[in-house]
Amino acid sequence: MQDQMSGKQQFIYTAKQMGRRSWSSAKAFAVMGLIFSAAECVVEKARAKHDTTNTVVAGCVTGGAISAKGGIFLVTD
């Protein structure tokens, strides 16, 4: 299909494809940010402390939540 397009048409087609992919990445990043922020706030409120442990726990929770959607993969030899 792209072989038959002019240079301008190829540029427009490529820009639209990039826009679609960028929007998808932006949504995924927004979800990660939301999960991380919510987890950090909950942990900070529960511990009643403001330190780096809250950030580490929130990162673990975020990673777990994101990977739970993809399923659990076990590495076996």
From TrEMBL:
GO terms for cellular component: TIM22 mitochondrial import inner membrane insertion complex. GO terms for molecular function: mitochondrion targeting sequence binding; protein transmembrane transporter activity. Keywords: Membrane, Mitochondrion, Mitochondrion inner membrane, Transmembrane, Transmembrane helix. GO terms for biological process: protein insertion into mitochondrial inner membrane. It is found in: Mitochondrion inner membrane. Its main location: mitochondrion. It is a multi-pass membrane protein. Belongs to the Tim17/Tim22/Tim23 family. This is Uncharacterized protein. The lineage of its organism: Eukaryota, Viridiplantae, Streptophyta, Embryophyta, Tracheophyta.
